[in-house]
Amino acid sequence: MNRYHILPVINGWVLREERSGSTIVTTETREQILALAGKLLDGHAARVWVHRPDGTVEQELAYPQDKVGDPA
What we know:
It comes from Pseudomonas tohonis. Pfam families: DUF2188. The protein is α+β, with helices and mostly antiparallel strands. The protein is built from one helix and five strands. A five-stranded mixed β-sheet has the order 3-2-1-4-5, covered by helices on one side. The two termini are 20 Å apart. Mean pLDDT is 90; it is low at 68-72.
């Protein structure tokens, strides 16, 4: 399972791969990075930690996300 972190930076937000530290994508807003991360990672086994400006974890997301109404 791949692991990623969404972090605030000076000019916006980044999605970073944990193992390599590589930046996957940068956006201007938190809402944009969350939407783009969902599109990029849905269908792949991944965990994403969303960080606050102070570095603490605000939220943990798991992909693929269950679709409402899909049988488990």
